[in-house]
Amino acid sequence: MSRLGDVDRKLLRLVQADSRQSVQQLGEKVGLSPSACHRRMKSLEERGYILAYRAALNADKLGFSMQFFISVSLGSQSEQSFEAFEAAVVGVPEILECHLMAGQSDYILRVVCRDLEDFERLHRRLIARLPGVSQVHSNMSIRTVKVRTGLPL
């Protein structure tokens, strides 16, 4: 992996905080011309430091008032079991994150739901029926204390 210079790190911090800034605005903040800043940003994208630009949406305003963290254990530890489970998870839009774990559970899922009825539907009809699932343990988030989408650069 190539090393990042101070200007690149500063650009990453700025765009991570607000990806709506123009190349001109970013350049002014790091002391680069718009064309030089554009080249730097393109390079950061091409080298894989910047994966995407996204908007953070308000889940509550969009009706997703409940969030759960679900631990899932599979009945088999075969490569085919993991592949089948992971392929199926991709098709469930309510699953926002899926992490392969070391420890008691094989996976941790972060899901959003509109209400308890929606969660029951998600749990019974989708999560419990994913390929290879042998155990499911759900934990409801009462309140989000901290969310950090960026990395500590």
At CATH level 2, the architecture of the largest domain is 2-Layer Sandwich
Radius of gyration: 20 Å
Strand proportion, as a percent range, falls in 15-25%
Q: What is the chain-wise order of helices and strands?
A: HHHEHEEHE
Strand order across the largest sheet = 2-3-1-4
Count the helices. How many?
Answer: 5
**Structure classification:** alpha+beta
- Share of residues in helices: 25-40%
Q: Overall pLDDT, averaged?
A: 94
**Biggest sheet character:** 4 strands, antiparallel
How would you classify the quaternary structure?
A: single chain
Number of strands: 4
CATH C-level class of the largest domain is Alpha Beta
Distance between the termini: 16 Å
Number of domains: 2
- Principal-axis shape equals elongated
